[in-house]
Amino acid sequence: MTIDDTKNEAHRLQELIDWRAQRVSFWARFANQTKSNALALQRVRTRNLHAVELIKLQAQQS
Question: What is the maximum alpha-carbon separation in the chain?
Answer without folding.
Answer: 91
